[in-house]
Amino acid sequence: MKKSIRDFDLNNKRVIIRVDFNVPIKDNKILDDNRIVMSLKTIKYALDNGAKVILMSHLGRVKEESDKNSKSLKIVSERLSELLNQEVIFINNTRGSELEKSIKDLKNGEVLLIENTRFEDLCGKKESGNDLELGKYWASLGDIFINDAFGTSHRSHASNVGIASNLESGIGFLIEEELDKLSLVTNNPEKPFAVILGGAKVSDKIGVIKNLVDKCDYIIIGGGMAYTFLKAQGYNIGNSLLDSDSLDFCKDMLEKYGYKIVLPVDSIVSKEFDKDVMLKDNDNFDNDDIGLDIGDKSIELFKEKLSECKTVVWNGPLGYSEIEKYSKGTKEILKYLSEKEMTVVIGGGDTASAAINFGYKEVFTHISTGGGASLELLEGKVLPGIDIIDDK
To answer: 18 catalytic, yes or no?
Structure first.
């Protein structure tokens, strides 16, 4: 059991909180502030308990100097000020005398946000490479470190592992909830138990399949990865997405666990993304057809299997759901699950975005904030950003 923010006396302490403010921004506007909102419980707890709060986050990937213009956290500091109803001091540097003086001058109950940690990647990837000197420097700015950025906890960065290696540490409320809810599907899930997998490539989900295939009753597969499985069964998949390197894996899984693996029986296909769509059974594909969503028969088949289940975990959309005409499969299964009395855990990333955008934000047992992190947990991997945290 890891220490949490509750286990520390925060009064008059400089508390560094690693949050996940990696929000979508376009034309200098935040398109979705959900990740900022999700951080508020931990931030407010620290403020209410007399802490001097120092926030750190990344925003996107910073590969060249010009990226600084569009990847600054200043706009996030302004939105956070509104949500907290108090000033958030923003320092547009990741180190230096201005930052050090501002932290020294912080009073209890005040909050400061440091500029995008990935700006440190411009000189040798010091943040994402977990530079030892940088981790020590950032740790020197605080008294206690709290990691509440689940979305980056599968990465060993200077702003999580680096700081926690040099400072007493705990987890925040968001990570605490993520671990608690994801344990519902990783530790003895109530059965029957179904795993729904979508997305583009089989290779991205091999670890999940291997880890959960013996624990689950069904693995329901949609999205682009379904066509590699269908190809392994001998179907003509036309120009649909094919992960050829994973064909042997698919054949092996179908041979050993074919009774558990549920594949689409029909698809919404098109010759090109922006062309007219057709509904076709698996054995009717033309050589130039592209499968872009599961069809009506597949939706009913998936519902039939899910009707038996008590627990469902879902990672990856069932079609190209960002486009309306290829979103029916994902929408229909989301709607079906929302009406059932069962434990439903939605992995982060595109699946979480789909669930939220289609109106199911408050419906399911849990919608994870971390796509890569939740995927690695489902694979049975250790998350370094959490593993480094002090034990109770």
So the answer is: no
Kindly give the parts of the chain with pLDDT less than 70: none
| Active-site hit among 349, 370, 371, 385 | 349
Amino acid at 82: E
Domain ranges of the chain: 5-171, 178-378
340 is catalytic: no
- The model's pTM is 0.91
- pLDDT value of position 69: 87
What one-letter code names the amino acid at 94? Answer: T
Q: Which of 2, 35, 126, 260 is catalytic?
A: 35
Give DSSP secondary structure letters for 223-238.
TTHHHHHHHHTT---T
Neighbouring CB atoms inside 10 A of 344's CB total 25
Helix (H/G/I), strand (E/B), else coil: 16:
strand
pLDDT tens-digit series, residues 98-111:
999 999 999 999 99
What pLDDT, on the 0 to 100 scale, is given for residue 273? 82
Secondary structure of 122-137 as H, E, C letters: HHCCCCCCCCHHHHHH
The residues near 274 (Cβ < 8 Å, ≥ 6 apart) are none
Active site residue 372: yes
Of residues 164, 151, 122, 155, the one with CA closest to residue 17: 164
What's the pLDDT at 370?
87
**Per-residue pLDDT, 298:** 98
Predicted pLDDT at 349: 82
pLDDT computed for residue 348 by the predictor: 75
Q: Which of 41, 95, 201, 280 does the annotation list as catalytic?
A: 201
Torsion of CA 181, 186, 311, 326, to 10 degrees: 90
Q: What homologous superfamily does CATH list for 178-378?
A: Phosphoglycerate kinase, N-terminal domain (3.40.50.1260)
Fold of 5-171: Rossmann fold (3.40.50)
Residue 355 to residue 281: CA distance in whole angstroms: 27
Q: How far apart, in Å, are the Cα atoms of 385 and each of 156, 267, 352, 359?
A: 6, 40, 21, 31
**Catalytic-residue membership of 310:** no
How many other β-carbons are positioned within 10 Å of the β-carbon of residue 142?
23
pLDDT in the model for residue 340? 93
Cα(389)–Cα(392) distance, integer angstroms: 10
Which DSSP string corresponds to 52-98? EEEEE---S---SGGGGGTS-SHHHHHHHHHHHTS-EEEES-SSSHH
Token pair belonging to 176: 């605490």
